[in-house]
From TrEMBL:
Domain NADH:ubiquinone oxidoreductase-like 20kDa subunit: 59-169
Alphabetical UniProt keywords: 4Fe-4S, Cell membrane, Iron, Iron-sulfur, Membrane, Metal-binding, NAD, Quinone, Translocase, Transmembrane, Transmembrane helix, Transport
Domain of life: Bacteria
Cofactor: [4Fe-4S] cluster
Family affiliation: Belongs to the complex I 20 kDa subunit family.
Purpose: NDH-1 shuttles electrons from NADH, via FMN and iron-sulfur (Fe-S) centers, to quinones in the respiratory chain. The immediate electron acceptor for the enzyme in this species is believed to be a menaquinone. Couples the redox reaction to proton translocation (for every two electrons transferred, four hydrogen ions are translocated across the cytoplasmic membrane), and thus conserves the redox energy in a proton gradient.
Protein name listed in UniProt: NADH-quinone oxidoreductase subunit B
Quaternary structure and interacting proteins, as annotated: NDH-1 is composed of 14 different subunits. Subunits NuoB, C, D, E, F, and G constitute the peripheral sector of the complex.
Cofactor note as given: Binds 1 [4Fe-4S] cluster.
Compositional bias segments (type: Low complexity): 1-14, 206-216
Catalytic activity: a quinone + NADH + 5 H(+)(in) = a quinol + NAD(+) + 4 H(+)(out)
Length: 216
């Protein structure tokens, strides 16, 4: 059987050759394994399995608790409240007044959360200091010490406002690219880079500082 293509006559265009398909976009550190559709699956899983680490500091924490109760029930949105600790949490909800004395603890717990991690600032005090913005001891917003993804205004906000903030965060996660978020890092951060500048660890036993104190 002859499979030779027929010769093209005068005025006939040659048969088109094979068209190369574009290279699919890749995903972050899994560039060799995960094509672009995998990003949709990973983001879908992350947006509907948010373990919350609640940092309740004042009256906004009561509204957070109300949002987790049966009437509002934010677990139907895929949000799991009250993670055992920061190392098991994906989302930190800072609800209440952040004082300068409490700021190092907020930052330290945020640093203990694994990546990717998100923060919702819940209430006017957490957003900008609220009615205490001119106080000598109140931090002018939790975004002064940690990055914030979603701000929920109000003093205090209703539980419905927190539900809307969670939905906005889920929309952000759905269109997020982990490659763009983490791909620019040439190397893993060092231990010194992860150490908070707000908290100075106590001196180790037998150091020069302790020896000097004993001498006095």
């Amino acid at each position: 059987m002859d499979v030779t293509p027929p010769a093209t006559g005068q005025g006939q265009a040659p048969a088109p050759g094979p068209v190369a398909l574009p290279e699919p976009q890749r995903l972050g550190g899994l560039a060799r394994l995960a094509p672009a559709p995998m990003k949709v699956v990973l983001n879908w899983g992350r947006r509907y399995s948010l373990w919350v680490f609640n940092f309740g500091l004042a009256c906004c924490a009561i509204e957070f608790i109300a949002a987790s109760m049966a009437r509002h029930d934010f677990m139907r949105l895929g949000v799991i409240p009250f993670a055992p600790g920061p190392r098991q949490a994906d989302l930190m909800v800072v609800s209440g007044t952040v004082t300068d004395k409490m700021a190092p603890a907020v930052k330290r717990l945020h640093e203990q959360m694994p990546e990717p991690k998100y923060v919702i600032s819940f209430g006017a005090c957490s957003n900008c200091g609220g009615p205490y913005w001119d106080s000598y001891s109140v931090t002018k917003g939790v975004d002064q010490i940690i990055p914030v993804d979603v701000y929920v205004p109000g003093c205090p906000p209703r539980p419905e406002a927190l539900l809307q903030g969670i939905i906005k965060l889920q929309e952000k996660i759905a269109r997020e690219s982990l490659g763009e978020r983490y791909g620019h890092r040439a190397e893993r951060p060092s231990t010194a880079a992860l150490t908070s500048g707000l908290v100075t660890p106590p001196p180790a036993p037998g150091t020069a500082a302790e020896a000097g104190g004993e001498g006095r």
